[in-house]
Amino acid sequence: MLTQVKTSTPQAILNTLSGASNVQFFQQFAAADFTAENLPVLSVNVSEEEIQAIGPALMAGHFISGNYFQTTQTPENFAFIKAFKTAYGEDRVTTDNVEAGYTAVYLWKTLVETAQSTTTVAIRDVAATKRIEYSAPEGMVRIDARTQHIYKTARVGRIRPDGQIEEVTLARI
């Protein structure tokens, strides 16, 4: 595959691999003399935890997308990270998936408190008729009354040499 990449001369790669495949991909990518400078990769299924497993040196300069990075600058995130590291160890990193699970629990709590019930009918009624929002570690999230889906902020970040993420701002088209 990397031979095809060399001959097609892309400007960037959109990586949709998941799990252990990312480790092999980035190792082979570096062995083929590709770097973030000569061929940046935007990964959609990589978080800070995978970056640590792959190796920050191989990942530095590449990009990831997500709704949350450990480096997200909100007061709620600072408290979330402190509590997480107290519970699981200073060397552990928070991730988009960890934060999403945490946020889901607190959205549920908000729905139950607003509905004053745990029944499905009461919860759905509240979600469909009230503005349900929660100040999560990633920032404000809210439930769309019509679709029952959650509104979240989409982010793109550049991987730093320490394996953390520097959020980048994209120009609007």
Question: Can you offer a commentary on this structure?
Answer:
42% of the residues lie in helices and 17% in strands. The protein folds into two domains: 2-67 and 154-166, Rossmann fold, CATH 3.40.50; 75-151, Response regulator (Rossmann fold, 3-Layer(aba) Sandwich), CATH 3.40.50. Strand 4 and strand 5 form a beta hairpin. The strands form two sheets. Strands 1-2-3-7-8 form a five-stranded mixed sheet, with no helix packed on it. Helix 6 packs across helix 7. It has 173 residues and is α/β, with parallel strands linked by helices. The chain contains seven helices and eight strands. The radius of gyration is 19 Å and the shape is elongated. The protein has helices at 2-8, 21-31, 48-54, 56-59, 75-88, 96-115, 120-129; strands at 13-15, 41-43, 63-66, 133-136, 139-143, 150-151, 155-159, 165-168.
Categorize the overall geometry.
elongated
Low-confidence stretches: none
Rg result: 19 Å
Helical proportion, percent range? 40-55%
Q: Pairing-aware structural class of the strands and helices?
A: alpha/beta
| Strands in their spatial order, largest beta sheet | 1-2-3-7-8
What is the H/E order?
HEHEHHEHHHEEEEE
CATH fold field value of the largest domain: Rossmann fold
CATH class of the largest domain: Alpha Beta
Regarding quaternary structure, how should these chains be classified? Answer: single chain
Quick tags:
173 residues; alpha/beta; Rossmann fold; 2 domains; five-stranded mixed sheet; three-stranded antiparallel sheet; 7 helices; 8 strands; elongated
